């Protein structure tokens, strides 16, 4: 994972990170090393520096209590601050400093000249985010200032409007601002995740905030619902439902909350994923007596059949440029990942190790595929380059880790794990496998997560 | 599991009916769940089975099991299916839904396809045995309806199975779940 910070506090961290992290290595340590020891590209970085690695590289960030002029009481400000702290912690970029270490007097202000940087250098802060809240009634404004402590320099300042009844949204906006100022990339905190959740009354599809919070029901039909997938514009979700006593493909329009049955051939109509242009969905149909992958229009009409081999063919997923599909096939005996051109031609096997590899997910730059592979009797999350090289393990526990899905910026992977004995929960990690953190609280069980598109549109990856 | 409750209720009522010599239909109509029971009866062909016969029939269908990640019939499975086939051959007005199931290993969608393959394998075997294709329907529940929880992978073998749900009049019954 490449991270760019606008100042070079982390040269030391780069050196340290040449030692592979304990949990991210195995098959391809050489690839890790070479990447870590590559000097920052001067053309690309400018004042940024490229570093590689896990939580060891986290930048110490100070987020003192928000200054309250008006508009929000102290408990409200604490709620808002907690959202920002959670976001920045989950990002994996930062080590959020304990407020007990702060020595600045409460009279200090938030704007340049209203406080001294020495009070932040002493406890070891590298980045400093100061926020003042003002406003009244339904309109509050958060004045956010982001500083490079070492240089004593303001990097960004912005006023963010919000409402007291939705501090989560305001908190995500503030956290996005911090990410943008300190890493030069767009934050992910306004993105959403769709997943199947079982809260005790069956498996239904829900849309969550990126961090597994705030579930909003999508299916709500009391039957079994599976494998939800986002349309690329984020307005619709497809999923398979047994509501008519057959695993049919349904699409729910999130704007109108209309549910439409689009494919109901006898047998399986399942595991659909949308093409990046939204023109088609690839899925598995078993109408021919054997499971085969087809491409359908969003109205359910068949465009073409993609596989013709006897055996299980499931889990098609399009590369971000739409030229390639990756899918799972048991045609050679055990389930393995295969690649094919979008029309189903030019099939080649991608995974050559392991006896059971499933659930492929292309990284947003199209270079890497994450999947769940069984090793020593358990499923773990792995990544492999789209050319078949660079196989690397990201997780290793004595419970199953499954169903990886990438954040739109490619810096994070969300997955399910039963590692804490509370049923399958949603977890997040950085794309190198570090900072593995549980997102959900164990009150339900979760499966088939898929990270939604960036509401501001796709990013470019050169 | 609602259907199982209805089934057991029906067989219990049937026994009561037989023991007391009462007309069965009156007993059935008096119960909750009678709508479904009546609908089933009316769907039966010319010589409807009595409730008792239906209950016996339902109980006689054998579940078949599969090896891990396989949809090939074992010798035990073939033996069980021949017995199931005999019932279907003797009652051509009876239909069954063959439900394919898988354990929790692997992705939900892979297991959905695996369950479908198992159910289809069972169907093909029965058809080869002479059972009418129109008596048989197939559905996969993948890993969604385990017989045993997945706390220990070694104990999951019972989940790799195909089950039979009796429908009547060759019509596809509501799911047993």
How would you describe this structure to a colleague?
The complex is a heterodimer of chains A (462) and B (177). Chain A is mostly beta strands. Chain A has 2 domains: 5-183, Rossmann fold (3-Layer(aba) Sandwich); 192-451, Neuraminidase (6 Propeller). Chain A has helices at 11-16, 29-37, 42-45, 74-91, 118-121, 167-183; strands at 2-5, 49-52, 59-62, 67-68, 94-96, 127-136, 139-148, 153-162, 192-198, 203-209, 216-217, 225-230, 236-241, 248-253, 258-263, 269-274, 281-285, 292-296, 302-305, 313-318, 324-329, 336-341, 348-349, 357-362, 368-375, 378-385, 392-393, 401-406, 412-417, 425-430, 437-438, 445-451. In chain A, the strands form 8 sheets. In chain A, strands 3, 4, 5, 6, 7 and 8 form a 6-stranded mixed beta sheet that branches. In chain A, strands 11-10-9-32 form a 4-stranded antiparallel beta sheet, with no helix packed on it. In chain A, a hairpin with a 4-residue loop joins strand 9 (192-198) and strand 10. In chain A, helix 4 crosses helix 6 (167-183). Chain B is α+β, with helices and mostly antiparallel strands and 177 residues long. Chain B has one domain (49-175): 60s Ribosomal Protein L30, Chain: A (2-Layer Sandwich). Chain B is elongated. Mean pLDDT of chain B is 75; it is low at 1-46 and 169-177. The chains are: A mainly beta (462), B alpha+beta (177).
Element layout with pairings:
The complex is a heterodimer of chains A (462) and B (177).
Chain A: E1 2-5, H1 11-16, H2 29-37, H3 42-45, E2 49-52, E3 59-62, E4 67-68, H4 74-91, E5 94-96, H5 118-121, E6 127-136, E7 139-148, E8 153-162, H6 167-183, E9 192-198, E10 203-209, E11 216-217, E12 225-230, E13 236-241, E14 248-253, E15 258-263, E16 269-274, E17 281-285, E18 292-296, E19 302-305, E20 313-318, E21 324-329, E22 336-341, E23 348-349, E24 357-362, E25 368-375, E26 378-385, E27 392-393, E28 401-406, E29 412-417, E30 425-430, E31 437-438, E32 445-451
Parallel strand pairs in A: 3-5, 3-6, 4-6
Antiparallel strand pairs in A: 1-2, 6-7, 7-8, 9-10, 9-32, 10-11, 12-13, 13-14, 14-15, 16-17, 17-18, 18-19, 20-21, 21-22, 22-23, 24-25, 25-26, 26-27, 28-29, 29-30, 30-31
Helix pairs in contact in A: 4-6
Chain B: H1 2-20, H2 24-29, H3 34-43, H4 51-60, E1 64-65, H5 75-90, E2 94-101, H6 108-128, E3 136-142, E4 161-168
Parallel strand pairs in B: 2-3
Antiparallel strand pairs in B: 1-4, 2-4
Helix pairs in contact in B: 1-4
């Amino acid at each position: 994972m490449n991270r760019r910070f606008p100042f070079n506090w982390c040269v030391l961290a780069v050196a340290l990170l040449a030692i592979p992290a304990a949990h991210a290595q195995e098959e391809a340590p050489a690839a890790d090393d070479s990447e870590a020891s590559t000097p920052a590209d001067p053309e690309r970085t400018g004042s940024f520096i490229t570093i590689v690695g896990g939580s060891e590289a986290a930048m110490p960030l100070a987020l003192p209590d928000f200054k309250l002029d008006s508009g929000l009481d102290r408990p409200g400000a604490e709620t808002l601050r907690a959202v920002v702290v959670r976001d920045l912690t989950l990002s994996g970029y930062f080590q959020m400093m304990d407020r007990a270490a702060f020595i600045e007097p409460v009279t200090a202000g938030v704007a340049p000249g209203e406080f001294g940087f020495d009070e932040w250098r002493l406890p070891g802060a590298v980045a400093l985010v100061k926020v003042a809240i003002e406003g009244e009634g339904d309109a509050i404004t958060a004045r956010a200032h982001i500083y490079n402590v070492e240089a004593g320099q303001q990097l960004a300042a912005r006023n963010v409007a919000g409402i007291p009844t939705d501090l989560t949204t305001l908190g995500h906006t503030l956290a996005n601002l911090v990410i943008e100022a300190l890493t030069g990339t767009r934050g992910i905190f306004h993105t959403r995740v769709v997943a199947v959740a079982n809260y005790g009354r069956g498996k239904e599809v829900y849309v969550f905030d990126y961090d597994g919070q705030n579930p909003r029901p999508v299916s709500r039909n009391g039957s079994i619902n599976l494998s939800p997938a986002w349309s690329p514009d984020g307005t619709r979700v497809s999923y398979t439902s047994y509501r008519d006593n057959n695993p049919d493909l349904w699409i729910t329009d999130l704007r109108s909350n209309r549910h439409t049955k689009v494919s109901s051939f006898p047998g399986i109509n399942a595991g659909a994923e949308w093409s990046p242009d939204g023109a088609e969905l690839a899925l598995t149909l078993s109408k021919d007596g054997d499971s085969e992958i087809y491409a359908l229009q969003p109205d359910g009409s068949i465009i073409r059949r993609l596989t013709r081999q006897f055996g299980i063919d499931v889990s098609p997923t399009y590369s971000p440029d739409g030229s390639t599909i990756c899918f799972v096939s048991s045609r050679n005996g055990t389930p393995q990942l295969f690649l094919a051109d979008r029309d189903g031609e030019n099939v080649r096997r991608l995974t050559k190790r392991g006896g059971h590899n499933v659930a492929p997910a292309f990284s947003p730059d199209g270079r890497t595929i994450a999947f769940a592979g069984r090793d020593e009797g358990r499923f773990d999350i792995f990544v492999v380059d789209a050319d078949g090289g660079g196989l690397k393990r990201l997780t290793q526990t004595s419970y199953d880790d499954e169903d990886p899905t990438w954040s739109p910026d490619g810096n994070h992977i969300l997955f399910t794990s039963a590692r804490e004995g509370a049923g399958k929960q949603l977890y997040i990690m950085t794309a190198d496998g570090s900072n593995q953190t549980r997102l959900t609280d164990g009150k339900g069980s979760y499966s088939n997560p898929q990270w939604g598109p960036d509401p501001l549109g796709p990013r470019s990856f050169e | 599991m609602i259907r199982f409750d209805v089934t057991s209720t029906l067989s219990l009522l049937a026994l009561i009916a037989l023991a007391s010599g009462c007309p069965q239909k009156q007993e059935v109509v008096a119960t909750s769940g009678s709508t479904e029971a009546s609908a089933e009866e009316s769907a039966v062909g010319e010589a409807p089975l009595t409730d008792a016969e239906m209950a016996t029939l339902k109980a006689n269908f054998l579940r078949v099991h599969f090896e891990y990640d396989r949809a090939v019939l074992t010798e035990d499975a073939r033996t069980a299916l021949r017995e199931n086939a005999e019932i279907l051959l003797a009652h051509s007005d009876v239909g069954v839904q063959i439900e394919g199931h898988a354990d929790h290993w692997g992705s939900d969608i892979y297991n959905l396809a695996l369950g479908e393959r198992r159910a289809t394998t069972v169907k093909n075997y029965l058809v080869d045995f002479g059972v009418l294709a129109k008596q048989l329907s197939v559905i996969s529940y993948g890993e969604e309806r385990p017989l045993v929880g997945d706390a220990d992978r070694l104990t999951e073998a019972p989940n790799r199975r195909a089950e039979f749900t009796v429908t009547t009049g060759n019509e596809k019954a509501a799911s047993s779940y």
